[in-house]
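The protein record now logged underneath.
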Amino acid sequence: ENYLLGVGRADCTGPVAEIPLMGYANPDQVGSGLLTRLYSRAFIVADLNDSRRVVFVSADIGMVSQRLRLEVLKKLKSKYGELYRQDNVILSGTHTHSGPGGYFQYTLFWITSKGLIRPSLNAIVNGIVKSIDIAHQNMKRGRLFINRGVVENSQINRSPFSYLENPASERSRYSSNTDKEMVLLKMVDGNGQELGLISWFAVHPVSMNNTNHLVNSDNVGYASYLFEQEKNKGMLPGEGSFVAAFASSNLGDVSPNTKGPFCVNTGDSCDNPQSTCPVGGATMCMAMGPGNDMFDSTRIIGQNIYLKAKELYDKASQEVTGPLSSAHQWVNMSDVSVELNATHTVKTCKPALGHSFAAGTTDGVGAFNFTQGSVEGDPFWDGIRDQLLGQPSNETKACHKPKPILFSTGEMTWPHPWHPDIVDVQIAAIGSLAVVAVPGEFTTMSGRRLREAVKREFDSYGAPRMDVVIAGLCNVYTHYITTYEEYQVQRYEAASTIYGPHTLSAYIQLYRGLAKAIATNTVQDLPRGPEPPFFNISNLTLVPPLIADRAPAKKTFGDVLQEVRQQYRESEVAEVTFVGANPRNSAENGTEHNFLTVERYASTSVSWHVVQTDASWDTRFYWTKGFLGRSNVTIEWHIPCGTEPGTYRIRYFGHYKKKLPSSHVVSIPFEGASSAFEVTTP
């Protein structure tokens, strides 16, 4: 054994209704149900004398925000003192675009996620901390193994015309315009018992498109689900001790929608530099996944990723050994001087977004028109809009050239700054593995340059043969990081490179500094940098307030409105509709409320046994809001092939809000059940 290892998993789903989903920046994409739960997965590595620790967390969320990180670290400090700190805790988001938003303190992100939504933020903070608690409580002696391999048929570059701007001499060193390599870290304890794994692979979890309203963890979440179901035999999804994280990497220009972009209206390809269609323009250009629909595509891509991970896991033999160390700095990214060479110094800029930001990508067309009636006449949101229309200063314009500036966010400060200036840079070294934690989405070539620079730095300071892996969407969200050459053509990724054309060069300089400090054992001499702000924001949101729920006349909550059929075959869909109540009531009662079960009757014990919950990818929970507090819930069970024949039923669990005569509002639990139905052999 070389290390003490701990793994943990905890629910971080949050409210599944009325909260905008984070990722596509589409204000109409609001949650109204659940396909699968979201989890935080934590991994702790300590050396045997327990003098040093490293924590890596991958959470099924769009990205880690600065607010989220600051709150998690505050909680860890009050629980564990100086054990888990800024330098040795990496928080990474998988980048699913189907998780609840509203957990950001910078104003720009309020626009599409309707403000700062405390229940959403709290669920993620608590889930991350709980996953670390579980890992902390289960530390055992163990060993680490690393493996790497190529994943086929799972990605395309969604900005190939930008990629082609990189020098031909550089491109000729690579066989593909995406990084197809998966890096996998396998954990086993001293008795050879399997603990878990972390996989890093560069792909956008956008198999589920922006028409989806069900909370879920997308393709990489499906890969985690398959691996954990395989290892935690006989357990329900989300239960069992084996933890499999499929973490993000340099996925900035990488899409899972492998059929490429087509015009939704005509079926023609729109793989052109503007991603635009002859009829309907750019809004009609959408990339298609390999499946017949987005659910199918999610499974196909997720399964590809899982199968490669399984193969790499089974064959992993290269052991990771050596000391642990970690380095972290806060940096004012709007003001970094970069020495390109002995004579030439350039600077980063105050944050700003270019015109193509509003256009979106072929994975999700832009919907950023902030003139919709819902905010007219509200003085707060009017103030927001007035700033959006403000002009950038000449200095910012010049700094960002050739970017045409749409929003000069670095010059917008009301009611708080619109974008971060203070950004985290961080590296953790676990023996020969260096995890480079980056605050956003590096494109394929940006990631290659960063990895190479960090590796070279380790080499030149006496730490050769390091495996360098990029962990994406860590610690604070700063959008995209393109190369200087990609920046010149100003597609979406370049328009969203917020600190200007030299952003990547600045990061390379900073991460080289961290790598040198780790290699020369001088981490303690690194300046901490300027502390990020923590804005005093209570619940500031456009999410509608929770009102008392109402059931239709002569019915009560949980009553069946539309019954199941009496009989189904596998691969059919069993469906039942109930008198429902707002699912947010349940989220506010406890983080891990399960909305549904599929149960099988066992005649031997004369009892019902739970075979699926709302965490299963085979169940879908839809909430439909009616008028004046009325709502319906529809539950679908997509009966998988190989389901044991027998008698089944579907149950629904919710809470309704009721106003007492004292006008105090309480949440009252209720449940409903379908009739029994048969699943027969095909």
